[in-house]
Design goal:
The chain contains ten helices and ten strands. With about 325 residues, the protein is α/β, with parallel strands linked by helices. The protein starts with a strand and ends in an 18-residue tail after the last helix. The structure holds 5'-O-[(R)-(carboxyoxy)(hydroxy)phosphoryl]adenosine and zinc ion (ZN). The site of zinc ion has 5 residues, from helix 3.
Length: about 325
C-alpha cells in the first residue's frame, strides 16, 4: 500500500511517502522564523504550513518516483498539537484525499512517535517499554501491541522538553532549548551544581520538572559570573538522570527486556549515553535523530498500519488538540 503522511502539529511542516512499511521519501521543513520570538507563534506556524504544504507534497511525490494516482491513502496528524496548525494539515489532507479519491486516517502524534521505532528497527517485537519525551509530554508506556498501551507514569507539570526550553530561556540561549543546552553542556561539568530531582522515592514512575526550572531561576538570580557551561551541564544531567532512572525502574517493574525512546528529547546524546551506562544489559532502540523529532515518516508508517487493518476516518473528522493515547 502507498500512503502519504502529513505532519503539522507544531512548527515542523513534514511530508513523507510510505510503501509497505518502507519510507520512499521524507521531507521536513523546520520553521526557523519562530527563533526570533523565543518560542512557537501559533498563527505564524499555521500560515507557514499553508505556504509550504503544496510544494512539499509535490516534491515528495516526484522525488519518490511514483504517480500521484498510485497513492492509496492519506495519513495526517489529528492531535495532540496546536489547533491552528492541526487545522492547516488536516484541511489540506482532506482536500487531497477527496481529489485523489482515496481513504484518509487521522493519526495520534504520540502513538506515531512510539511507532517511529519500527522504522529504526523493523525487528522490534511487542511488548516493549517506551520513554516518550517531547515538548509537551513525558510519559512511560508499556506497549503491548497496536492500540494496546498502558501508561506507567507521566509528568505532573512540565514536560522534559519544556524543561529544556524554559531552562535555555533562563540561561539566555536560543529556541528550541534542548539542542542549545546539549551543545553548551559538552564543555561543562555535570556535577558542578546540585539541582533537585523530584519523585525519586519508592521507585515512583511520576515526573515533575517545574521545581527544577524554578531552582535554575533562583541559582541564576543569586550568582554573578556563573559558568554557563557548568550550569547547563548540571541542569541537563538533572533531567537525564531522572528520565533514565525511571526508565530502568519501569523495565524492572514490568520485567520487559526491550525499551525504545521517542520524541524530540530522545535525540539528546547525553541521554542516550546515560541509558547505555545505567542499563548495559537491556535491548534499547535508539532511533536516528530525524525519527525522534517531529517528522511525517512516522505518521505515514502508522497510518499505513491502520489503513491496512481497515481503520480509516470519515472525511469530516475533527482535529483533537488534546488527543490522548488511551
Ligand atoms: O517531539 P518534538 O520534536 O515535538 C513535540 O511533539 O513536542 O519535541 C520537541 C522538544 C523541544 O522541547 C526541544 O527542546 C526538545 O524536544 N529537543 C531536545 C533536543 N532536541 C529537541 N531536548 C534535549 N536535547 C536535544 N538534543
Ligand atoms: Zn512530537
Amino acid at each position: 500500500m502507498i500512503v502519504l503522511g502529513i505532519e503539522t502539529s507544531c512548527d515542523e511542516t513534514a511530508v513523507a511517502l510510505c510503501h509497505d512499511g518502507n519510507i520512499l521519501c521524507s521531507e521536513i521543513s523546520t520553521q526557523t522564523i519562530h527563533r526570533k520570538f523565543g518560542g512557537v507563534v501559533p498563527e505564524i506556524a499555521s500560515r507557514e504550513h499553508e505556504r509550504l504544504l503544496n510544494e512539499m507534497v509535490n516534491y515528495t511525490i516526484n522525488n519518490s518516483g511514483i504517480e500521484k494516482s498510485k497513492i492509496e491513502g492519506i495519513a495526517v496528524t489529528q492531535g495532540p498539537g496546536l489547533s491552528g496548525t492541526l487545522i492547516s494539515g488536516v484541511s489540506f489532507a482532506k482536500g487531497l484525499a477527496l481529489g485523489l479519491n482515496c481513504k484518509i486516517v487521522g493519526v495520534n502524534h504520540l502513538e506515531a512517535h512510539i511507532f517511529a521505532n519500527f522504522l529504526a528497527d523493523p525487528k522490534l517485537k511487542f511488548p516493549f517499554i517506551c520513554l516518550l519525551v517531547s515538548g509537551g509530554h513525558t510519559q512511560i508506556w508499556l506497549v503491548n501491541g497496536l492500540k494496546d498501551y498502558n501508561l506507567l507514569g507521566e509528568t505532573r507539570d512540565d514536560a522534559a522538553g519544556e524543561a529544556f526550553d524554559k531552562g535555555a530561556r533562563i540561561l539566555g540561549l536560543g529556541y528550541p532549548g534542548g539542542p542549545e543546552i546539549e551543545k553548551l553542556s559538552e564543555f561543562g561539568n555535570k556535577k558542578a551544581v546540585k539541582f533537585p530531582r523530584s519523585f525519586m522515592q519508592k521507585k515512583s514512575l511520576e515526573f515533575s520538572f517545574s521545581g527544577l526550572k524554578t531552582s535554575l531561576l533562583y541559582y541564576v538570580d543569586e550568582h554573578v559570573n556563573i559558568c554557563k557551561e557548568d550550569v547547563a551541564a548540571s541542569y541537563q544531567f538533572a533531567i537525564i538522570e531522572v528520565l533514565v532512572t525511571k526508565l530502568k525502574w519501569a523495565m524492572e517493574k514490568t520485567k520487559c527486556f526491550t525499551c525504545v525512546i521517542a520524541g524530540g528529547v530522545a535525540s539528546n546524546n547525553a541521554l542516550r549515553s546515560h541509558i547505555n551506562v545505567i542499563m548495559p544489559d537491556k535491548k534499547v532502540i535508539f532511533p536516528e535523530l530525524s525519527l525522534c523529532t517531529d517528522n511525517a515518516a512516522m505518521i505515514a508508517y502508522l497510518g499505513e498500519l491502520y489503513l491496512k487493518k481497515g481503520y480509516f476516518s470519515p472525511i469530516d473528522f475533527p482535529i483533537m488538540p488534546n488527543m490522548k493515547l488511551v
